Every structure is written in C-alpha cells, then in structure tokens.
Amino acid sequence: MAICIKSRTTTLLPQKPRGLSSFFAAIITEGLGTSFSRCSISTDQSVVSPKNCQDLFRAWGCNNQQTSHIFERVPSLHKAKLDKLQSKLKILHDLGFSSSDLVKIISCRPRFLRCKINHYLDERVQYLENLFGSKQTLQKAILRNPSILTYDLKTMIIPTVDLYKSMGINQEDLTLMLLSRPTILPRTSLNDEKLEYIRRTGTSKDSKMYKYVVTIMAISRLETIREKVANLEKFGFMEDEVFRLIGSSPLVLTLSVDKVQRNMTYVVGCMKQPAKVVLSHPFLIFNNLETVMKPRMIVAAKIDDMGLFPRIEGPKVFTALRMTERRFFKAFINCHPLETAKELMDCYLDAKHVKRLAEESKRSVHKGFPF
User: Fold this and answer.
1) Among residues 326, 304, 305, 302, which one has the least CA distance to residue 313?
2) Could you read off the pLDDT tens digit of each residue along the chain, which spans 371 residues?
3) What is the domain extent for residue 47?
4) Helix H segments across 133-221?
5) What is the pTM of this model?
6) Is residue 9 part of a domain?
7) How far apart, in whole angstroms, are the C-alpha atoms of residue 252 and residue 286?
8) Would you say residue 108 lies in a domain?
9) Is 358 among the domain residues?
10) Are residues 40 and 83 in the same domain?
11) Which of 118, 192, 312, 327 could pair covalently with 300 via S-S, beta carbons 3.0-4.6 A apart?
C-alpha cells in the first residue's frame, strides 16, 4: 500500500499547472484591454490558465458580448488549438489592435483566424507600412480588408503596386484607392482591351479622376464593362460618349444595369428630358429614384398645379434634384404659408413612402465581384 501511494505521489509532483505565455501575462498584469483587476486575476484561475478558446479571448481583453459574437461568426474556433490561436492574437496585438478591432476583423473575415498569417509576416508588414506611410493607416487598411495580411508579398502585393505605379498613379493616390477599395490587390487585372478603354475615356494622368478610372477598370470584369456600356447605348449614346461619361464619372461602372435603366427611363419618360442630359448632369444616374427624384418631381408638378412660386422648372429642376432634403424643404416647401406648406409636405412624404412595385418579392441576382 505504501509503495502504491509513493508511486502515485511521485507521478503527481512533477506536474505543473499550465500558465499563460509571457505575452498574455503581460496583457493581464498591465491591464491592456481587460477589465480584470490584479486581485481578481490571482483568484480567477480560468483566466490565468486558459482551458479553452473562450478563456483565451477573455485574457486578450474581450468581454462576454464580444466573445459570444466571435464564436457566433466562427463556431469552429471552439475546436481551435490554443497555441496557434494565441500566436495569431499576439500578431494582432503587436500590430496595435484591440479587442473591439478583433470583433470587426472577425465580422469582416470570419475565417481570418483560420488562415496562415505568420508566414513571412515581418517582411510583409514592413512593406505594407512603408506603402501606407504609417502604422495607423495600415491598421485602417487591415480593418477594411483583414485578408491583406495573408496576401503573398512577392506574387501579389509587389507586382500589383508596381503595375499601378507604372500606370502613373503615385503612392499617395494608390494608398487612397487601397483604403476606399480594399480588394484592389487580389482583383486587379489589366490587359490590352482594358487599357484601350482607359485611353478612350480621355482622362489624363493629371486628372483627379484618373486614379478612379484606372482602378475601377482594373478590378472590373471585361464582360461587365461591355454590358454596362451596351446598356447606355440603348438610350442613344455613342460608344465614345459612354466612355467620356465614365471618364468624368468613373463610379458609373459601379452601378447595376437595373438602376441605370430605371433612372434613365424616368429621365426620358417622366421628366421629358433628352437622354444625353446625363452627360452634363451625371448625378441623374446616381440619385435614388424612389426617395429623391420621384417625390421632388411630384412636388414640382403640385406647385405648378397650385400656381405657386417659385416653380421647379427649367434649370431649377437639376438644382432641386441635387439639393439636400433640408435645403429642398426650405427653398420650395417651407417658403409658403403654413397650410400650403403642410399640403406640399404631405404630398412629398406620401410620394416618398410609396414602395417600389413588387420590391419585397424581387430576387437578388448575384453575378459575383465586383460590379
């Protein structure tokens, strides 16, 4: 019996309780991003020695709500290996991210913590920091597109950056584009046909629109560009006119075919304007048809029927459609006596709250990235 007890004692004594790495110990003792005090840490063994991923996220500073959100987005993290997950959290800590930033990253890219982000990481981070100009700007870029930490430096990041620089886009403009369109790096593709399209827009390299024209063309598929050009040609535009419109308003390529068709049909059919008016007033394609264009044109007709002044006619039509809602009220509704203004406001609100026909039953057709 004594021999048995002795053998059990000798097998138990060498075992030491699991502890946190120096990284997580530093986080806890310094109070970085955690609500646990030093006194509570010494008594809460589940935080000092994480037994699962939930304890690990707590040690990193995530509260219960944040932890629940992370596991809701990525249930497979329950089965993740603690050592690998800990090393990835350390990488994010070294880059300056907090627990709230982690939630944003997971919401944007649920599989981020399942990717291999530590391969050649230092070299990649150093290059990206030089590209974006500061660590703070790099953090913004990562929050917009966490996958940037997983892109291969030599086969994707450097070649894409060099391509845009060869097109005449300087580093400052390229940084702006990378922040506004985070997936430029993996989606960029330029060939002879796209280069010809860029040339036909007539946009010079000194133009403020040039960087938008090049980047949007580069990340768009050829089939998409052809389809959207052909869609505008149906309304009587020449192909060169369409490309000039793209040169002055590159974001036209980001609009769906359906939206352009509906807005153009309203401009031509209801507003009785020539289709080519959008060449000088491109906002007519971008405006929301249900909440901006229709309600204001209905109020314009109401003002005309009631014989009121000022009327919305001639060049004032385009001015009225570009105004903010508050300014529109001040210029054309609230300028009238109280009862008249109330009648016009009711007319405006009724028109604005009319839902698009069969909107709820409309099918969402996803043709893939980007536009």
Assistant:
1) 304
2) 444 444 444 443 444 444 444 444 454 444 444 433 333 333 344 445 678 888 899 888 899 999 999 999 999 888 888 888 988 999 999 999 999 999 999 998 988 888 888 778 889 999 999 999 999 999 999 999 999 999 999 999 999 999 999 999 999 999 999 999 888 999 999 999 999 999 999 999 999 999 999 999 999 999 999 999 999 999 999 999 999 999 999 999 999 999 999 999 999 999 999 999 999 999 999 999 999 999 999 999 999 999 999 999 999 999 999 999 999 999 999 999 999 999 999 999 999 998 776 555 555 555 554 54
3) 18-114
4) 135-144, 158-166, 171-180, 184-187, 192-200, 210-219
5) 0.79
6) no
7) 8
8) yes
9) no
10) yes
11) 312
Last residue of one domain, picked from the residues 280, 308, 335: 280
The span from the CA of 192 to the CA of 41, in Å, is 63
Pair 25, 99 in one domain:
yes
Instruction: Give the H/E segment covering residue 22.
Output: helix 22-30
Same domain flag for 297 and 214 = no
Same domain as 193, residue 183:
no
Q: Which two tokens stand for residue 292?
A: 């901006």
329 residue type, one letter: F
